[in-house]
Amino acid sequence: MKTKALLEPETVETNRTQLRQRQSSVLRKAKGRTVVVVRAREEEDEKCVVDKRYFEEILQNFSAALETLEIATDSKLFSRLLKAGETVDEEMRLGKLHSFGEAFGEG
């Protein structure tokens, strides 16, 4: 799923009474990127029910974003990566790079 879709879930609202009375049907609605928002009398006490795969995908994307941020904020590492990228571009232009299959006899 694209990152933008992860950030724009569909929502279905219910309240605690409806959740208790129709638990199975309400929980089935939390599928894919559809999030069930369980309303409470106090707004700060709202809960969300999400599909496990959707939640894991959000966590995976969040983790990747943090790793990217850590690399980007490490000025020494980031400059070394940029320099290596220039070398790769040059080697690719000169035909010096090999495919994974060529290098490891697979493919």
Write the layout of secondary structure elements.
Elements: H1 3-7, E1 10-15, H2 16-21, H3 23-28, E2 34-39, E3 47-49, H4 52-73, H5 75-93, H6 100-104
Parallel strand pairs: 1-2
Antiparallel strand pairs: 2-3
What would your notes on this structure say?
It contains six helices and three strands, in the order αβααββααα. By secondary structure, the chain is an alpha+beta fold. It has one domain (3-94). It has helices spanning 3-7, 16-21, 23-28, 52-73, 75-93, 100-104, and strands at residues 10-15, 34-39, 47-49. β2 (34-39) and β3 form a beta hairpin. It has a three-stranded mixed sheet with strand order 1-2-3.
Short note summarizing the structure:
This protein has 107 residues and is of the alpha+beta class. It is 59% helix and 14% strand. A three-stranded mixed β-sheet has the order 1-2-3.
Distance linking N and C termini:
28 Å
The portion of residues forming beta strands comes to 5-15%
Low-pLDDT ranges: none
What is the strand arrangement across the widest sheet?
1-2-3
Oligomer: single chain
User: So how many helices?
Assistant: 6
Alpha-beta content class: alpha+beta
**pLDDT averaged over residues:** 88
What portion of residues is helical?
55-70%
Give the biggest sheet: 3 strands, mixed
Q: Count of DSSP E strands? A: 3
Topology pattern, helix = H, strand = E? HEHHEEHHH
Number of domains: 1
Radius of gyration: 23 Å
Shape: elongated
